[in-house]
Amino acid sequence: MRGDADPESSARAAEAAAVDADATAAVAPAAELARVREELVALRARHTALVGEQTDLLAVVCHELRTPITVITGFARLLASERFGELNPKQAHFVDECRKACARLDAFVEDLLRAARDERAADACALEDASLVALFRDVLTYLEPVLADARVAVALRVDPDAEWARFDRARLEQVVVNLLGNALRHAGEGGEVRVRARRVAADCAAADVADCEGPSAAPHAIEVSVEDDGPGVAPEDRERIFEPWVRVGGSAAASAPAERTAARERTGRGLGLGLAICRRIVEGHGGRLALRSEPGAGACFTFTLPAALPKEP
Q: Is pLDDT above 50 for 100?
């Protein structure tokens, strides 16, 4: 006849089973954690490899661009010297604009190379008081052939108290050219791009607040906006659009009119670096680049600059 189990033995057995269960429960999260760590290491290695490949590709592209830039600049300089014939004023103007465009492209290539060397490095900007009106006029002259081809009007408005700001002219010119180029890509034939500069208060920089304007707002910054009437940017892309190597379409790209599609084809699409570089340049000025957009209602990029230093009496 089987006797009853010893209570002490039963207690020991139950305790051992509980310990085994705890050990099993502890092993499962540890194993899962180890698996996740391995996946993270693999993803980090893959990301590093991709960044290296992109950097190598960028270096090759920049190197290949340098040669034609040098050749075009050389021929433009040769034409400007009039050694092979006198130029009329309009021809001289076109040659001069060609040389300026080559200089801008060469500076852009240098920025790309700098970004390839260190994507996290902040761009050092040499700030000085300068006129935004003069800069906008130079950029519009540079883009004149593109504007004529796209048949898009540009409305420029600079408030009287917002003309002068502190900025690095070459780098800010790059920002404005890039933002205008983006606007042209999404504006339809016969559309309009609006460029505005206004003075804003310290706590209103890059904000769409009407009562930030005017002398009563104790202004200290200049806000520049570039707005188009294109399809807009989808909400999930409004921050991603500033990341390097990211290219996104408008929220209404599928239903965009044919003329908008043609405008994008004329101006082309880049590598997804333009806005990332623009944001770094603006941050190098102590400001920030932001996007306001609603589906089907266009996009408005805004950035801030320090206002010009007050002149001493």
A: yes
Asked if 279 and 171 count as a contact pair (C-beta separation under 8 A), the reply is no
Cβ-contact 290, 303 below 8 angstroms: yes
User: Nearest 5°: CA angle at 245, between 244 and 250?
Assistant: 100
Cβ–Cβ < 8 Å for 241, 233: yes
Axis-axis angle for helices 7-80, 89-117 (nearest 10): 160
- Contact present, 225 and 154 (Cβ < 8 Å): no
Q: In whole angstroms, what is the distance from residue 226 CA to residue 176 CA?
A: 8
Q: How far apart are CA 252 and CA 231, in angstroms?
A: 5
CB 295 within 8 A of CB 252: yes
Can you tell me the distance from the alpha carbon of 80 to that of 71, in angstroms, rounded to the nearest whole number? 14
pLDDT bin (cut points 50, 70, 90) of residue 113 is: confident
Q: What SS3 class is residue 174?
A: helix
- Give the Å distances, CA to CA, from 249 to 183, 240, 272: 13, 11, 11
pTM for this one? 0.60
The pLDDT, as a whole number, for residue 254 is 34
Name residue 58's amino acid.
Answer: L
- At a CB cut-off of 8 Å and minimum separation 6, what does 204 contact? 212, 217
Q: What burial letters (b/e) apply to 94-105, b meaning 16+ CB within 10 Å?
A: ebebbbebbebb
- Beta-carbon contacts of residue 115 (< 8 Å; ≥ 6 apart): 58, 244, 273, 277, 280
Give the residue from 224, 249, 80 showing the smallest Cα distance to 164: 224
Q: What is the pLDDT of residues 182-231, one digit of tens each?
A: 888 887 777 889 999 999 975 554 444 344 444 433 447 999 999 998 88
User: Please, which residues have CB within 8 angstroms of residue 217's CB and are 6 or more apart in sequence?
Assistant: 199, 200, 201, 204, 211
Give the orientation angle of helix 258-267 with respect to helix 169-186, to 10 degrees: 150
